[in-house]
Write a structure and sequence with these properties.
- By secondary structure, the chain is α/β, with parallel strands linked by helices.
- It has helices at residues 17-39, 59-72, 93-101, 139-149, 218-221, 244-256, 273-277, 326-333, 377-393, 396-401, 442-462, 471-477, 521-546, 550-582, 599-609, 618-625, 629-638, 665-668, 670-679, and strands at 4-10, 49-56, 78-82, 86-90, 159-182, 194-208, 211-213, 229-231, 266-268, 313-316, 353-358, 409-412, 465-467, 497-499, 616-617, 643-646, 655-658.
- Strands 1, 2, 5, 6, 7, 8, 9, 10, 11 and 12 form a 10-stranded mixed beta sheet that branches. Strands 15-17-16 form a 3-stranded antiparallel beta sheet.
- Strand 16 (643-646) and strand 17 form a beta hairpin.
- Helix 1 (17-39) runs antiparallel to helix 3, helix 2 (59-72) packs antiparallel against helix 3 (93-101) and helix 14 runs antiparallel to helix 15 (599-609).
- The longest helix is centred in the last third of the chain and has 33 residues, at 550-582.
- The N and C termini lie far apart (77 Å).
């Protein structure tokens, strides 16, 4: 019986990589429990499922890269208890440590954290500070890699449910790019064609020592390079410093997750010209009869020499240009590229491979029902970069490939339910601040890790299945008596089906959902204080390194001390409070006594906290929140103790903000208002045509 092959694709997620890690933790654990049951001769399905490829972008790439050394050490189920949250389970402790315990804005016990100063204290051989590389201290991530890869004890035996050579793809945004040319006729002899440069790059590794099932991949094996083939046995007992080949592997993973500006970019010891020329491409049009499915890059002749000089580059977040590298997993699974994998229409219901996408943020931004058709310069500039990123991620060929139901594509995404079974508005706790919010609290990441395990368990029980008539499940379940089949049935879409990865052994035990985690106001203030300590070192250092003229440098430092510092602190504090209130992740705006606010009240309080406006009007709040005007007025009256009533606008509208955001005295006095506008700027209100 041929094994059912699966590929796993993990999308970018920043701190929500904790969710993807939880999914992967349980998926691999379920496979291991099933394998142990088969080895013991228990009455379980006998078909084989083999993980053949993992592809990932950003946090997804980092999760895949970190999980494999963790898997090499074997499963060591454990749990961690959190006050006001409960018990969080894991089966791969090194993966749990890497995503839940270690990465944080403020380390609970004073250890390395993302708001630390270690990276700003590094110097060159002349004792001069190294250039500032990111807003956050990315050296923490290097420490996490070392703690995950080093000190591995006795490694587990290779597993049948992992391919003997497991393919791992990590996407990069290559800032140097790879040049190509489209040749045209009609020009002068030797005239170059139409030049272009590819920045959506990738690194491809093959990991050995984890699995024992040989699986051929004509597409992926074709470009496998010896120096990108690693054995996890090299890590056994490793202490001190990683070998160079594993340093490059770690750099490739961290480079894929190098969120622009926030985290440090990484330098990659690139492939040579000949290795680039050997690359496999997920392009159907390349596979013409009698033609070689290759694209030759147009590097300068100096880089094509016989000594094969490496073509290195700097990379930032791979998710910028390819956040869901589904196609890399799909093509790796192909038996005869570019022909699609077996489908029902091929006869005999012979589907035997599939890709599982793990995506913590699958929801698209709401499509606007109308367009303001704003032609102003700043409006157009603000829309260009999001449009370019969205276009780079658009994959029409994958839309076409997915137009027919083929049981070859599955998705695991965050789903959270209340006690009555109603889906909750927010699935994951790490979703605020564009995905960085999980670094606010270990409880947020622990919640999402457990949610990933819970969602994966439900996915395997109810969705990752084939109809009973399909060959794989027929052959796998034929060995079982009718009495043993009761626990192995589901009906996704109303079709009687059998799970492809049956839950047996300890994987059957129900995973308990956790309460929605919240932070105290004091925890927010701790993050704000730590952020300002870093900012007060980072900004002057950045000015010293980037501004050459002493007068300009002095004026900018003065501006930072007088106005910039306070503005940045307020922006950080009230952005955090606004988003935490919106998502009901703040215990209380004041003190530690939990507030008793309903969703409408939290929404209005979040709008009043938002640093986008200094003062709010009733009309502005109604427009933003879409709440009834009477609801807004009732809230402003009922919560008057939390609010400050500001001056009226020229149109006679009363303004409001939360009490702690009330402007200073000098900004409220009419006589001094014009003077303070020169220094602090006008008080921003939410109706641009109705000034104070």
């Amino acid at each position: 019986m041929e094994p059912f092959r699966i590929g796993i694709t993990m999308a970018g997620a920043i701190s929500a990589g904790a969710y993807s890690a939880g999914v992967l933790d349980f998926l691999l654990y379920a496979l291991d429990e099933w394998q142990q049951a088969k080895d013991k001769g228990e009455a379980v399905p006998e078909h084989e499922v083999v993980v053949t490829v993992i592809s990932g972008a950003s946090a997804g790439a980092m999760t895949g890269a970190l999980a494999l050394p963790a898997l090499a050490e074997g499963f060591k189920p454990g749990w961690q208890n959190y006050p006001e949250l409960g018990r969080v389970d894991y089966s791969l402790p090194r993966l749990y440590q890497a995503w839940v315990r270690l990465p944080s804005f403020v380390a609970p016990k004073g250890g390395p954290d993302l708001l630390g100063l270690a990276d700003l204290k590094r110097t060159d051989e002349n004792k001069k500070p190294l250039p500032v590389q990111s807003l956050l201290d990315s050296s923490v991530l290097d420490g996490i890699v070392d703690k995950t890869f080093l000190g591995l004890g006795q490694l587990a035996e290779p597993r049948p449910y992992i391919a003997q050579g497991l393919h791992l793809f990590m996407t990069h945004t290559n800032l140097r790019g790879v040049p190509y040319e489209a040749h045209f006729q009609g020009g002068a002899q030797g005239q170059p064609g139409y030049p272009m440069r590819l920045h959506a790059d990738r690194v491809h590794y093959r990991l050995e020592g984890l699995g024992s099932t040989p699986v051929a991949s004509p597409w992926a094996d074709n470009e496998c390079l010896e120096r990108f083939t690693l054995s996890v046995h090299q890590l056994q007992g490793m202490q001190g410093r990683l070998p160079d080949e594993w340093q490059r592997y770690a750099a490739a993973a961290l480079g894929s997750g190098a969120f622009p500006v926030g985290l440090s970019a990484r330098s990659i010891s690139g492939q040579t010209y000949h290795e680039h020329a050997k690359r496999s491409w997920p392009l159907v049009s390349l596979y013409r009869p009698g033609a070689s499915p290759r694209l030759e890059p147009s590097f300068p002749e100096q880089l094509k020499g016989p000594d094969n000089p490496p073509i290195s580059y700097v990379t930032v977040d791979g998710g910028v240009l390819n956040n869901e590298p589904f196609e890399l997993a799909r093509w790796t699974l192909m038996e005869n590229p570019p022909r699609s994998n077996p489908r029902t229409e091929d006869g005999g219901e012979c589907v035997d491979r599939a890709v599982i996408m793990i995506d913590p943020f699958p929801e698209a931004d709401p499509y606007p029902l109308t367009d303001a058709l704003d032609l102003s310069l700043m409006s157009v500039i603000g829309k260009i970069l999001p449009a370019m990123k969205s276009q780079a991620r658009c994959k029409l060929d994958e839309i076409v490939a997915a137009m027919e139901l083929s049981y070859s594509r599955f998705l695991i995404a965050p789903r959270r339910y209340d006690e009555q079974g109603n889906a909750q508005r927010y699935g994951i706790a790490c979703g605020l601040l564009g995905g960085f919010g999980g670094f606010l609290s270990e409880r947020f990441r622990a919640h999402d890790y457990q949610l990933g395990r819970l969602n994966c368990q439900r996915f395997l029980m109810e969705y990752f299945a084939l109809p009973e008539s399909y060959q794989v499940v027929q052959q796998g379940y034929d060995c079982l008596k009718a009495s043993h089949l009761k626990g192995f049935s589901c009906s996704p879409g109303g079709v009687a089906s059998r799970p492809l990865i049956p839950l047996v052994g300890a994987a059957v035990s129900p995973i308990q959902p956790l309460p929605w985690p919240r932070v105290l106001r004091s925890e927010v203030e701790e993050v704000v204080a730590k952020a300002m300590v870093r900012a007060n070192v980072l900004v002057p250092q950045l000015l010293r390194q980037q501004v050459s003229k002493p007068l300009v440098k002095g004026l900018m430092r003065l501006a930072w001390s007088i106005w910039g510092k306070g503005g940045v602190e307020d922006m950080i504090r009230f952005t955090l409070l606004s988003e935490l209130l919106t998502r009901d992740q703040l215990m209380s705006l004041r003190g530690s006594v939990p507030h008793k606010l309903n969703e409408e009240e939290r929404t209005l309080l979040a709008a009043l906290c938002s640093p986008a406006h200094d003062l709010r009007t009733v009309d502005g709040l109604v427009a933003e929140t879409r709440l009834d005007r009477q609801q807004v007025l009732l809230f402003l009256e009922r919560r008057a103790d939390m609010l400050w009533r500001g001056p009226k606008t020229q149109g006679g509208r009363r303004t409001y903000t939360i009490d702690e955001r009330r402007p200073g005295l000098q900004r409220r006095l009419v006589i001094l208002r014009k003077l303070t506008e020169l220094t602090n700027g006008k008080l921003e209100i939410d109706l641009p045509n109705d000034e104070l």
